[in-house]
Each structure stands twice: as C-alpha cells, then as structure tokens.
Amino acid sequence: MGIGTRDDAAVYRLRDDLAIVQTVDIFPPIVDDPWHFGAIAAANAFSDVYAMGGKPLLAMNLVCFPIDLPMDILGEILKGGAAKAAEAGVLIVGGHTLDDKEPKYGMAVTGTVQPGGHVGIDTACAGDLLLLTKPLGTGIITTAGKQGVVDDAVLESAIEVMSALNRDASEAMTEVGVNACTDVTGFGLLGHLKSMAEASGVTARVRASDVPLIDGTWDLVCSGVAPGGTRRNLSSVDIVAAWDGSVSDEMKLVLCDAQTSGGLLMSVPPAKLSELTAALSRRGVSGSAVIGEMAEGGQHLIEVLP
Ligand code: CO
Ligand code: CO
Predict the structure, then answer these.
(1) What percent of the chain has pLDDT above 90?
(2) Are 208 and 217 spatial neighbours (Cβ–Cβ below 8 Å)?
(3) How far, in Å, is the centroid of ligand 2 from the Cα of 68?
(4) Does the model's pTM come out above 0.85?
(5) Nearest Cα residue to 260 out of 227, 238, 215
C-alpha cells in the first residue's frame, strides 16, 4: 500500500501475482499550444506509474473548461492527450468535464505492477548513486514563455522534454533493479530528493555542476526568471540543506525549479550503474546523468556541492 509513504501513487494488491497502481494529476495550461498541453498533461499523469516501475493501462480524462472558450481548443487538448496515451499503450476509457473559469486537464490513471516489485521512495541506501533521466528547467522556461521572453527554440526543447514518456526509463529501471525512484515534478529536484532522503533515512549529496539543464535555462534564471513555485520550493529545501559556499542563488533556484513531467530520479547501487546506463541507452533514453549519491544520514537531508 502507498499509505504512510510519500509515493504519488497507491498500490493495491489484487492477487498474489497482481497489484494495481492508481494515480491522478491535473493542472492548468503550461504552454499556449493546446495540443502540446494535452500531450504533456498525459505524459505527466502516466509518470507516477512509471516512477513505481508499473505499467499504465487505463485512463479517465479530467477536464475543466470555460463554456465561453471555443470548443475546438478543448478538442486539441484532448487530441494531444489521446496521442500520448496511444504512444504509451494506454486506453482512455472515459472522463468527466466541468465548467470552470480557467482550463485544466489531466487524467486519473490505473496501471499494474508486480506485488512487492514496485519501486518506492523509502528504500534508498547509503552508497547509492543518484541518476536523473531528464534535464531540469521546464518551470523557468515555461514561465519565461508566459512572460514572452523566451526563444522559440528553447521553449521547443522544454516541450520536447515534458512530452517525453518516462516509460523507457522505467523499463530500464525494472529490468536492472534499483533501490528507490521518484519522478521529479512540482517540488523540483531537491524537493523530491528531500522526500526520498527523509523517507529512507539517508543524506543526499548532489554535485550541482553534474545536473543536466535544458539549454537556455541558465540565461533565463540569471536574468531573474523563476516561477513562484520554484521560489517556494527553495524556501522549504533551504532549511534541510547544506550548501557549499560557492553555490550561487541562481543555481539553488535551478535545483529547486518546479518541473512538469520531469524525469525519473533513481537511487541505484554503484554495482548496477553500468548495467542501468546500458539498459537506458539501448532504449534510446539519452541525457540521463549521475548527479550525486546517498550517504549515511547526517545533520542535513541534502548537501549540495559545486
Ligand atoms: Co503526481
Ligand atoms: Co510523482
């Protein structure tokens, strides 16, 4: 059962050899283009199942939409979600729509996982390496997009990152076996890492310069762009983190940037790393990086090195 842990999905055992995973996610438009918004929302909704090592099977659309907006916008959102579901092999079996001032879209997702085989966040071990499968920066870039201060190419790379399914990374993970995993979403890299370290009773050590960023992220944060959620994440991480004196305020924001449909963050025994990176690259998952390690629980939940 997911109850009592901080996993984003619940696991319920139906039989000795079969458990279901249940999760839900919904949010307002993150990009202007309705089709891409739909695709990103779907990829994000499936992600909590992938993070547990499960396979999403069925989804129900959840829609909030103002009656005075053109219905073809809603049609595009749903088409984007349907395309992503088709790519993931997920059947959309229904849904529910309500009138609301601001559009929102998401899905309730049901998947399956081997009982006892699901990957939690409370089982990371001291000595594990931390591997992140997608670059950071989607919160900063989409905020710049809303402010109209971002290059098209930068926004397009962020859309590509957010739309990518975590399926292949999840399959590589379950093939090799890791100690713990979470997906990086609204609480940012360090926010989700904090939950994992706390639940596992270890200290996470991150090397800032090893954390991959989407091109353009650094320039934007240095020009002062950061979403409110990112700043709030930093405040809540700050109290449990030890920062090396050379880590800049901009870097702290990037490491706490609120992500949408971010990558998987895995805690993997060092002996399995080469097998894991091989399994990832065999599936075409590029851009993953080792960003630090877990250490014995110390004074801080997180230590950030330059
Ligand atoms: Co979630
Ligand atoms: Co999650």
Answers:
(1) 95
(2) no
(3) 33
(4) yes
(5) 227
